[in-house]
Write a sequence for this structure.
């Protein structure tokens, strides 16, 4: 079905149309968020004579990119069209041919790009190729919204580290567990179901040894629409070898498990983990004697993990925040109070004064039955 769009009468109207159609491309792109990694989720909308003639998104690695899918759907209608693409079209051969070649061959008139691709194989080469072929290019259209959508991909390509999402549930007075350590359940079933959506958008779920021992988690995605093609990698951080192989975390039928550990762990424990089917990687230690968390995120990034969801306890959460490695913080607040003896959200050394406190930007507030979900991004993430 063709979508009528207003024909631009002046520059302001033309810019408004570009924004409208880039937002549509963003909506299309989101269809691939749970399946495209380690590639980016990209959307493409083709418009000719004020009408949307085709759309496409990148579903998964190895399959046609968004531009190729839209061009195939449009056929001859692509000639003379404007392509709205959330990310700069690729200019290199990978598992699929360069998207710029397809756009040039289809004789599109103009390409409107949300943001440039920081991948060194692209990084402006797509724009240069299009312009060299005589195609008009507009870039950085609705860039802030596109950056928000593609934040995990852009961060991983620029830094080499997986984008770190720290998730926690706490009481109204900021406690993540009661004085006796119990935390099931601070929040409602609606909040817990929402967490599975976060897992589905992540390629790895990370916990520390304390959480693994206390909760015996499976860390799998369950009961969500549009399940990812495969379960996220389960990552256990255990620098002391304290977690045995019993329990769902080492059930290889559920999902793969990676143990990040240190040289001080006994060989017998390493062999036990490996015999249970887990992959074991030795990480260096930071000055405080704990696993080097930047190394952990770099190792995950090297494996193609764009987003790592951390569901660890206060110790791991505090260490990540102090290191400036948390890119996004998702806090579920339940309608309970646990008092001063309850466990804190973040453990470890505190800032000496309010002037030294970490700063976070609130992006969204969502009510989930009796709970509230707060979404923050870090103002000071490395």
């Amino acid at each position: 079905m063709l979508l009528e769009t207003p024909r631009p009468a002046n520059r302001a109207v033309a810019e408004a149309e570009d924004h409208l159609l880039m937002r549509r491309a963003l909506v299309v792109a989101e269809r691939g968020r749970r399946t495209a990694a380690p590639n980016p989720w990209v959307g493409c909308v083709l418009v000719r004579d004020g009408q949307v003639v085709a759309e496409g998104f990148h579903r998964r690695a190895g399959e046609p990119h968004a531009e190729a899918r839209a061009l195939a759907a449009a056929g001859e209608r692509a000639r003379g069209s404007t392509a709205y693409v959330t990310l700069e079209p690729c200019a290199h051969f990978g598992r699929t041919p360069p998207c710029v070649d397809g756009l040039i061959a289809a004789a599109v008139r103009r390409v409107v790009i949300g943001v440039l691709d920081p991948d060194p194989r692209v990084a402006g080469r797509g724009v240069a190729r299009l312009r060299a072929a005589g195609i008009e290019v507009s870039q950085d259209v609705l860039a802030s919204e596109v950056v928000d959508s593609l934040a995990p991909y852009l961060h991983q390509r620029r830094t080499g580290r997986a984008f770190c999402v720290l998730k926690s549930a706490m009481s109204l007075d900021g406690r993540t567990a009661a004085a006796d350590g119990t935390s099931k359940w601070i929040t409602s079933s609606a909040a817990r179901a929402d967490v599975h959506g976060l897992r589905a958008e992540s390629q790895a779920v990370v916990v520390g040894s304390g959480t693994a021992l206390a909760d015996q988690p499976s860390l799998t995605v369950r009961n969500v629409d549009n399940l990812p093609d495969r379960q996220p990698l389960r990552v256990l951080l255990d620098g002391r070898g304290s977690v045995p192989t019993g329990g769902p975390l080492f059930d290889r039928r559920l999902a793969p498990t990676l143990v990040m550990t240190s040289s001080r762990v006994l060989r017998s424990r390493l062999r036990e983990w490996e015999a249970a089917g887990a992959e074991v990687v030795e990480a260096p230690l930071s000055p405080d004697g704990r696993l080097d968390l930047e190394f952990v995120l770099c190792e995950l990034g090297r494996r193609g993990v764009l987003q790592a969801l951390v569901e660890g306890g206060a110790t791991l959460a505090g260490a990540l925040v102090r290191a400036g490695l948390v890119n996004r913080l998702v806090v579920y607040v339940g309608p309970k109070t646990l008092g001063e003896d309850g466990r804190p959200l973040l453990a470890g050394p505190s800032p000496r004064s309010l002037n030294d406190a970490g700063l976070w930007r609130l992006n969204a507030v969502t009510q989930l039955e009796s709970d509230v979900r707060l979404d923050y991004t870090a103002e000071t993430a490395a």
